Amino acid sequence: MIHRWSIARRLFVANLLIVVSFIAIVGTAAYVDARDRTYDEAGRRMGGVAAAIAANPLVLQAAATPNPSAILQPYAKDVMAAADVDFITIMAPDRTRWTHPRDEELGRPYIGSIDAALQGHAFTEVTAGTLGPSVRTIVPVKDGTGAVKALVAVGVTVRNVDVAFAGRLPVLLAVGVALLLGGSLASWLLGRYLRRVTRGWGPEQLAQLFAYYESVLHSVREGLILIDTRKRVVMYNDQAAELLGLPETGSNDPTRPPSLADLPLDPQLRSLFESGRATKDEIVLAGSRVLVVNQRPAHGPDSPGARGKVPVYGTVATLRDRTEIEALGNELQTMRTLSDALRAQTHEHANRLHTMVSLLELGRTGEALDFATQDLALSQRLTDDMVSSIDEPVVGALVMGKVAEAHERGVQLDVSTLGSGAPAGVAVQDLVTILGNLLDNAIDAAADAPPPRRVVLTLEADEEGLDIAVNDSGAPIDPADAEKIFRHGFSTKPAGTGGRGIGLALVRQAVQRLGGTLAINGRRGAKFQVFLPAAVSAEKEHRQ
């Protein structure tokens, strides 16, 4: 049954038991201390009364007479009434009573210890006498030579002492009840807080839930990162560590989570995490990866006393790697470019065939033959230029497709190569990404500009690497936008245009990953210059 209790109930019961035990221990100690103090106070008061009586000369004078009781008995009763004591017994050194509250006890021997008093010392004891148990103090009466001539015993019954002690019990009881109520109230408030925080779950349920969450955290293929309100990374899973280049999970001290500023994060990604804003499928370029980020606040449980203000513990962000998808998208875009080029060529070829057929139907065979020969020579020359200048067939096909696309949009695309035009050991996918996006942006800019619309592509390859320059006749780029233009999401295209703000960001990402440089210049239009260093072969590296 206890296993079903929540943490709040267990803490309440445990704290209540501790308070009750504390009150029992402290109450018992206080009770014993108060009782001892009451008896000590009674003994000190009896000692003061006895010492005052022993110092009175009347006692020595009466002790020297044949009948001391006749003088001392009235005196003792007066003092008893004034000092509020139960008995005053003045006796001879041989225990014979000279005074007593009861007249019939006069002349009888005193019951109790008198040895210390006979030696000249006062002492206090609790013993039973004719009036019952009592707290009494015995003081010797000495003459001028120091001889003990009489003894004075003053006492109060234990019953009266207990009555005085009982007067202190309500205070002790009130203190105990106050501690119990205060401890119970503190336990209830703490239990209420824990019940709200833990949602009424017990430790076994929380342990099981934590095991489930930890298993899910490390088994999902998406990166997951938890950030608190102080911009500290509370937790992240293995996939997030791999995507963001973070230390392995479990290597950090959980009591001292690292801040976002201490982690090697991309500035754009760090800015997104620090903002805490809600995002859905936002694309962020982080190093060599293209990440899709979803982020939302982590709200605490709602409670009746919160008045609609739900606490926010931080943010939860999920990361998906879209690098391979973007690579496939670039390849698909290349295929679309080639398809568009084939469609454009097919359209032009159909027009030319109609022209030649019409010339043949008109009987102008020579003119039809000359037209076909010139068209074939023009197409062959363009193909030969591409094949001879660019060694990589995929890149050559891409450029030919862009030439046809530019021609269809009324833009002249000129290609110039220096050297072999080889890709300098760079992966074809990266070249397609860089060339394709640069040419797409240049063709768009030239197509939107007034005539003459022209784009010039220059490729120069040597042992050091590959230089790529793309110059268009479009509108020049504002120097203030020279750095912003490479950021993801920034675009000079009108709103609603597809693929806004992604092309040049992917170009810069690919160039940085390959260790190259990217620059913008040109007074007329825009000129993008890219340098990609040549890959060092294993043999050359061994020689160095």
UniProtKB/TrEMBL annotation:
Residues 431-536 form the Histidine kinase domain. One of its GO terms (molecular function) is kinase activity. It is an enzyme of class 2 (transferase). The keyword Phosphoprotein applies. It is found in: Cell membrane. The chain crosses the membrane at residues 12-32, 169-190. Residues 209-246 form the PAS domain. Keywords: ATP-binding, Cell membrane, Kinase, Membrane, Nucleotide-binding, Phosphoprotein, Transferase, Transmembrane, Transmembrane helix, Two-component regulatory system. PANTHER family: SENSOR PROTEIN CREC. This is histidine kinase. It comes from Pseudarthrobacter enclensis.
